[in-house]
Every structure is written in structure tokens, then in C-alpha cells.
Write a structure and sequence with these properties.
Helices cover 4% and strands 53% of the residues. By secondary structure, it is mainly β. The strands form 8 sheets. Strands 19, 21, 22, 24 and 25 form a 5-stranded antiparallel sheet that branches. Residues 1-11 have low confidence and may be disordered.
Length: 276
């Protein structure tokens, strides 16, 4: 009797030859669920009785799985689902595709666009789960190119005084922005910087100051900033350009105020001194 009992224990302890997850590959939309099963097989491919599978997920955040193999998708990405039966693992790939745009908002940084200047359109795209889609493909159009034009990056150029509408589309989401173009009283433009002595690694803020014929300040200039040499970068922060150089040397910074209107300065960057 003891020998029979030992034989039963021996056979129960033998792990399956292979474990198979069904399905082995699945695409699940964020917010939805899918049931997975794990099957234990012997060397002949026949189903064998085995312990209940234990479920795991390797990539946290994309999906979760409960003790019964029910997978819930949470955010776009790829994840590997793992089931372990009798010490034998099996794997399945789960893909959560990017949700399409559901809502779109767009705004201008100014009340009105000065004729002859360009301003950036700020656009935010979100999914139905209220997640941002920073890489969404945007399409721009304008109701009246004589008043205002818009390029593929969403920069609006005021042509002549008047009113127009710029439309932004991302998938099926749409937003409309009223654009008012006014006369430009500026007669002079100058780039100013917040640091006189600049060393490598310093953060330098630059801004274009526009003045009218009486020397008064003209607001509403939001240039497109660029730097011509390698080893430095500049990006826009509102109307300002934020410049950082990784190395020493002279760097030419250009502010594109309008299609035919630019100003440039040279910033001399000194080597950074390190204290011993």
C-alpha cells in the first residue's frame, strides 16, 4: 500500500513537458480585458492534469493580470504575459495599441498677431482616457490665406490686418482658433540676453525687444529661435529663447520674427572652470 502511495506522489510531481498560453499573441485596446488560458502538455502533446497556473506580467503599467488569467489593458505598449505551471513557463505577447485622438485644444500666445510676424500655435491632443498624445499627427488649415497663413508646424503668420480662422485636425478631433491680425507698429528689433559672461553649461535666456517709432515697447513678438553651430541648443519658452552650450566658442543665435524678418547675435561662450 505504501509503494502505491509513493508511486502516485511520484507521478503527481512530474512537471508537464510544455505549457501553452492561448492566445499566444493578442491586441487589447486600453480599457478592455481579454481572457487567457494556460494548458499543460506532455511530451506527446496531450493535456495533463497539473497545478493551477500562476500568472505574471513582466512590463508593469501596460497590462495587469489576475489569478484567473484575465488581462486588463491600461496604456499603449507591449508586454509579456507569463504563465507558470508545474515549474514550466509559457509566454504570450500582448500589444496595447495607441488610442486615437478624442479631443483637441489649440490656443495662441497672443491676443492678436502683428502683421509680418509669426507666432506658434499651442496644441494639446488627448485620448478618450484623457491621456496626452504628444506625437499625434496634426493638420492645419486657414480660412483666409490673405489674412493669415499657417505652416505644417502650426506657426501662424499675420499677413495683413483682418480676421480669420485656423483649423487644427488630429484624426477625427478638430479645433478652431480665431486669429486677429493687427497693424505692426514696431520699427526696430533687438535681441537681449540675461547673461553677459557665459560659460559652457550656463542657461541663457534671450528675448527680442521690439520698439515703435516713439521708442515704446511693442508686445507680441514670439520668434522661432535657432543656433547655427554644433555643440549648443536653443528652444522656445514662451517668447524667450533658452540657450545652453556644451562647449566653448562663439555661437550665432538667430530669431526668426517673420518670413522676411530676422535678427541675430553672437554669444561668446567661455570654457567652464572646475575647482580642484
Amino acid at each position: 500500500m505504501l509503494a502505491i502511495f509513493s508511486l502516485l506522489i511520484f507521478f503527481q510531481a512530474v512537471p508537464p513537458d510544455t505549457v501553452v498560453i492561448e492566445p499566444s499573441h493578442a491586441v487589447i485596446v486600453a480599457g478592455e480585458t481579454r481572457q487567457f488560458t494556460a494548458q499543460a502538455l506532455d511530451a506527446e502533446g496531450r493535456t495533463v492534469d497539473a497545478a493551477e497556473p500562476r500568472w505574471f506580467v513582466r512590463e508593469e503599467g501596460v497590462i495587469t493580470v489576475d489569478a484567473d488569467g484575465l488581462v486588463a489593458a491600461h496604456r499603449p505598449g507591449k508586454a509579456e504575459l507569463v504563465a507558470v505551471v508545474g515549474g514550466k513557463p509559457a509566454y504570450a505577447e500582448v500589444v496595447v495599441p495607441q488610442l486615437p485622438p478624442a479631443t483637441l485644444t489649440a490656443r495662441l500666445p497672443v491676443v492678436s498677431v502683428l502683421a509680418g510676424t509669426t507666432v506658434p500655435l499651442s496644441v494639446a491632443v488627448r485620448t478618450r482616457l484623457d491621456e496626452e498624445l504628444p506625437g499625434a499627427r496634426l493638420r492645419f488649415s486657414t480660412s483666409n490665406r490673405r489674412i493669415a497663413t499657417v505652416d505644417s508646424d502650426g506657426r501662424i503668420t499675420g499677413m495683413v490686418p483682418g480676421e480669420g480662422i485656423v483649423t487644427v485636425r488630429a484624426g477625427r478631433a478638430t479645433a478652431h482658433v480665431n486669429v486677429s491680425v493687427t497693424e505692426n507698429p514696431a520699427v526696430g528689433y533687438q535681441i537681449a540676453q540675461n547673461r553677459v559672461l557665459v560659460t559652457a553649461g550656463d542657461v541663457v535666456r534671450l528675448r527680442v525687444h521690439a520698439v515703435d517709432s516713439l521708442g515704446g515697447s511693442v508686445e507680441g513678438v514670439h520668434p522661432l529661435w535657432s543656433v547655427s553651430q554644433r555643440g549648443a541648443e536653443i528652444h522656445s519658452d514662451g517668447a524667450d529663447g533658452v540657450f545652453v552650450a556644451e562647449r566653448s566658442g562663439p555661437f550665432t543665435i538667430t530669431a526668426a520674427i517673420g518670413p522676411d524678418l530676422t535678427r541675430s547675435i553672437v554669444v561668446d561662450v567661455a570654457p567652464r572652470q572646475y575647482n580642484a
